[in-house]
Amino acid sequence: MQRFNDQIIKIYNTLSGKKEIFKPINKGYIGMYVCGPTVYSNVHLGNVRTFMSFDIVFRYLKHLGFKVRYVRNITDAGHLENDADSGEDKITKKARLEQIEPMEVVQRYTVDFHNVLNTFNFLPPSIEPTATGHIIEQIELISKIIENGFAYVINGSVYFNVHKYNETKDYGILSKRKLEDLIHNTRELDGQSDKKNPQDFALWKKAEPQHIMRWPSPWSDGFPGWHLECTAMSTKYLGEKFDIHGGGMDLKFPHHECEIAQNEAAIGVNPVNYWMHANMLELNGQRMSKSTGNTVNPDELLSGNNTFFSKAFSPSIIRFFIAQAQYRSVLDLTDAGLLASEKGFNRLMDAIKTMENLKASTKSSIDILSWQQSCYNAMNDDFNSPILIAQLFEAVKYINQIKEETETLSSEDLEILKNTVNNFVFDILGLENNAKTNTGTDKLSGAVDVLIRLRQDARANKDFTMSDKIRDELSDVGIQLKDGKEGTTFSLS
Ligand code: AMP
Ligand code: ZN
């Protein structure tokens, strides 16, 4: 099989604010860490977008022949409300409200997360470590940070001393914030905290008597701070310094800034060479977010059971929609956008079917190698999936021209076209042909589409009794047809 790891990849590195040529620490190997979900509620499509951005990165790097160790954690402890150092643990709160064990909450939403990832055809990471499985590593890290003078103990809790750290290092190196501005902008939370300074952050918190998730430590029975788990788990599995760290834009500060500070304070190393941040998915022009409730969950979109969209969409169409935006741009989830993606996706799949039966000629009239390199160039340029998709539509044009015999490809070039299209569409973008997906939702969509076409035929034949019967009987079983400019769509009630 042909290998392409001589391709030159450029990655936009948040640390430098520039696109940089990507050089792995060990030739041929890549270590990549992505912050995983906090498993206290169902994932929404915003979360899916971020994880999908890194799924495509993972798939592309693997395709190029790199041996990628991809670590994506599960946060099952230590993440407090409002992403702050006070308040209740998100998982414990859910457990209290539902009167179940915290670990039942963790189990339920980890299973949900994995189901969603399977539905959307994600590749599993190489390692999926949990925060609760790495308490010892986190305690060791805290001890090192205290030993090195960058943390202090108060009333059984341990805080990172941001001011002390900033005397010799740069707190704000990633997020481009200045400590002076942070001091200026922090509201004093009238004596609620033991911290020396409000900018300090918790490494270990002493558990209140009612706090269920607690572990023994040299400082108190308590639990680790949220930022610490990612430092412990990334460096344990990828080394003190590794290639790529990813996450959503909202994690840049404080979470990732604190990860750098913790590693620098513990072992004197900036842990990551390339920081990648995926931009947000919006709904109605506003960030999709659990805390504001402005969310759509995957099953709501897949079933059509929601108030935002005119019909149900299949996982590959949602994947295609997401890949049509570059991962660093904001993307607004809209009905019009999804409908347009559906059309584009179907056009691509039709062309792929046609491609299988194309006939080769003796000579090529298309420079297929240069088209192939354009596909790689798109992905090499900071994983620019929309440009890649534009190149795939170039291929759709070629396929139709070859079918109509206005252009020709030799048998060797035709093989290159087929392999390249299949590699990029199925292996790298992770799309699945409709025929290959056979979830209940896809089958339902397919069956309703058949009925919609029968109704159109009935109307064309002026058989309105039949067309109304189809509409009414579908309505009786909870499927509403909607006639619009773009044709008939359906929703489930
Ligand atoms: P959480 O479980 O809240 O820690 O989020 C898991 C991941 O989803 C993080 O990388 C977040 O940055 C990301 N995320 C949260 N909301 C959105 C959104 N609206 N769009 C894209 N990514 C998001
Ligand atoms: Zn993290």
Instruction: Catalogue the ligands.
Output: adenosine monophosphate, zinc ion
Distance between the termini: 49 Å
The number of helical elements comes to 16
Count of DSSP E strands?
A: 15
Total individual domains: 3
Main sheet attributes: strand count, strand direction, barrel closure: 4 strands, parallel
Evaluate the radius of gyration: 26 Å
Oligomer: single chain
Largest sheet: spatial strand order: 4-3-9-10
Here the CATH topology of the largest domain equals: Rossmann fold
Supply the CATH class of the largest domain: Alpha Beta
Q: Write down the overall mean pLDDT.
A: 93
The second-level CATH architecture of the largest domain is: 3-Layer(aba) Sandwich
**Overall SS class:** alpha/beta
The fraction of residues assigned to DSSP E strands is 5-15%
